[in-house]
Amino acid sequence: MKKISSKEIQQLINEIVTSFSSIDQKVLELTHVSNDDFSALNKIMKDHHKTTHEIGRSTAELIERVESLKDNKALQKLRNANDALKTSVKLSKHNISEYTTQASRLNHDFKHIFIPILNFKQNISTLKFLLTNLKLNQGLIGKKAHIETKKLIEDLTAKIEQIQVEIPIIAKDVDSLKNNYSNAIDKATSARRLIEMDLYEDIDLLNKQISFIEKGIRNSKSIKSQVEQKNQEGFQNLNQIITNLQYHDIIRQKIEHIQDTHKNILEELNTLEKQENIIQQGLKYIKQIPGITEIQAGQLILTNKEYQGAIENISKKLLDTSNTMEDVNNLSYSIFKLEDSNFTTDSLGKTTEAVNKKIFDFSKSIAELLDSNKTLQESIKLHDQHYKKLEQIETDISTIINKINEHLVDESDIKTIANKLISLQNDIIESRSNIGKIINSHKNNHLIQLIIDIDKHLSILENNAIETNDLHPLFEEFNQINDKIKHNCKSYKTFDSELKNTLGNIKYYDFYEHQVEEIINQLNSVYKKILPISEEGEIQNDLLTSMKAAYTMQSQRDIHEHTSNDAEEEDDDNLELF
Fold first, then answer.
1. How many CA atoms lie within 13 A of 208 on its CB side?
2. How far is it, in rounded angstroms, from Cα 540 to Cα 75?
3. Which of 165, 263, 368, 408 gives 418 a disulfide partner, CB atoms 3.0 to 4.6 angstroms apart?
C-alpha cells in the first residue's frame, strides 16, 4: 500500500465527500424522476380502470338495448306493415298489369267491329232498296195477299227507318268506347308506373333498412361474447399494470438504501476530519469504499434494469389496453356496421315519409283508374242497351220479312224478290250477330273483378301506411344506442390521447439511464482514487456488513455477495467498473 500523509488523506477525504455529495444529489434526482414517472403512470392506470369500466358497462348496456329491439313495438309494426306493403304492391302490380292487358285486348276488338257494322248498314240499305222494288211489283200480287202485304211493307219500312237511326248510335258508341278504353288503359299504365318506378323502390329500400336493423339485432349476440372477452383482456392488462407499478416501492427501497449508504459514508468521513489519528482511521475506513462503490454500481445497474423493465411493461400493457378499448368500440360499431352504411334514423324516417307519399299518389292514381273504369263500364252498359234495341228492331224486321214471304210463297211472278228477301234476311242476322259477339265479350269482361281486387289491395296499402310519429320510440332507442357508441368513442380517444402524452413524458427514455451512467462514472472515479492506497486482501469491516444487513431484497444480497467475492480475488489496481 502506498504511504500517504495526513494532508493527502485529508484531501482524499474531501474529494470523496464531494463525489458522494454529488452522487447523492443525482440519486435524489433519480428519486424525483421515478416518483414523477410512476405517479403519472399510476394516474393513467386509474384513468384506464375508470375508462375501461365505463366503456365496458356502456357497451354491455347498448348491446342489451340492441337485443331488446326485437321486442320494440314500433319495429314490429314497421316490419309487419312493410311485409303487407310488399305483398299488396306485388298483387296490385299483377292486377293492374292484367287489367291493362285485358283492356288493351278488348280495345283491339273494335278494329273488327266496323266491318260487321258496315255490312249490317249495307244490308239494311239493300233491304230498303228491295222493299222499294217490292212496292213497285205489288200489282203482281193477288188481291187478298196484296192488302196484307201492303200493310207489312209499311210496317217494314217503318222498322227500316228505326234501325237506320240506331246504326249511327252503335257506331258512335264504338268511338266512345275506344276513347274510354284508351283513357282507362292510360290510367292503369300510370298507376303501374307509380308502383314499378316509385312505390316498389321505396318499399324495397324500407325493407332493406328494416333488415339492416334486424341483422344488427342478430349480430349483437355473437358480438356480446367478443366484447366480454375484450373487457376481460382489458382487466387482465390492468392487473399486470398494477403488478408492475408495485416495482416502484422496490426501486424506491433500493435507491433509499443507496442514499442511506452515502449518508453513512459522509457522516463517517466528516467524523474522521475531527480525529487526531486521521491517517490510521482514514485508511482503515477508506479502504472499504472500493467494495462499496462496486456494490452500489451493481445495485444501480439492477435498479435501472428493473426500472426500465417496469416502465416498458406498464407502457406496453397500457397501449394494449388502449387497443382493446378501440376493439370494443369497433365491435360496437360493427353491430350495425355503421362504418359501411348510410343508415340513420333520419334516412329511415325519410323513407317512411316517401312510402306514405307514394301510397297517397298511388291512391290518387287508382281513384282516377276507378273513375275511368266506371265510365267505361257505363259506356259498355249503354252500348249493350243500344245493341239490344238494334237487335229487337232487327228481330221485328225478320218477323215482318217472314210474314211477307208467307204471302209471296204462292206468287210465282215475284218469286225472285222473295228469294232475295230470304237471302238478305240471313245476311242481316249474321252481320248483327257478329256485332253482338263483340258486344257480349265486352259486357262479360273481367275488368270489374280486377278493379275490385285492385281497390282491395289499395285499402291494404293505405291501412299500412306508417306515420313518422309512430316510429319515435324506435328512433329514440336507436339514438340512445348511437349516443352511447359516440360517447364510448370519445372516451377512448380522450384516454388514448392522455396515454400517449403521458408515455411521451416518461423521463427514463432520455434521463434515467443517463443519470445512472453518470453516477457509475463518479463511483468509478472514487474507486480509482482509493484503490492505490487499499491493501490487497484486506478484510472489509463493519460498513460492508451493515450494508448487507440493511438489504431488504434477495437481489441486493446476491449482488453484494457476488461483488464482495470478486473484490477478494481482484489484483488489478487499475480496475474499472465499466
1. 12
2. 86
3. 408
CA separation for the pair 186, 207 (Å, rounded):
30
User: pLDDT tens digits for 248-281?
Assistant: 676 677 777 777 776 777 677 677 655 555 556 6
> What percentage of residues in the chain have a pLDDT greater than 90?
19
Report the chain's terminal Cα–Cα distance, integer Å. Answer: 24
- Count other Cβ atoms within 10 Å, centred on residue 556: 22
pLDDT in tens, 199-240: 888 999 999 989 888 888 888 888 888 888 888 888 888 888
- Distance, in Å, from the CA atom of 49 to the CA atom of 225, rounded to the nearest integer, reads 20
Cell numbers found for residue 544: 460492508
- Residue (of 14, 179, 196) closest to 107 by Cα position: 179
Q: Which residues contact 230 (CB under 8 A, 6 or more apart)?
A: 324, 327, 328, 331
Written in H, E and C, the secondary structure of 212-253 is HHHHHHHHHHHHHHHHHHHHHHHHHHHHHHHHHHCHHHHHHH
Computed over every residue of the chain, the mean pLDDT equals 79
Q: Could you read off the pLDDT of 343-355 as tens digits, one per residue? A: 778 888 899 999 9
Per-residue DSSP letter, 507: G
Grid coordinates belonging to 298: 451493481
542 or 141, higher pLDDT:
141
Q: Which amino acid is at 74?
A: A
User: What cell was used for 79?
Assistant: 316490419
Joined grid coordinates for residue 545: 456488513
Question: What is the C-alpha to C-alpha distance for residues 219 and 338, in angstroms, rounded to an integer?
Answer: 13
Three-state secondary structure string covering 493-543: HHHHHHHHHHHHCCHHHCCHHHHHHHHHHHHHHHHHHHHHHCCCCCCCCHH
> Which residues, 6+ apart, have CB-to-CB distance to 281 below 8 Å?
272, 275
Evaluate the CA torsion angle 233, 235, 240, 241 in order and state its sign.
positive
Whole-prediction pTM value?
0.66
Residue bearing cell 273513375: 371
CA angle 266, 269, 271 (to 5 degrees): 110
Rg (C-alpha) for the chain, rounded Å, is 57
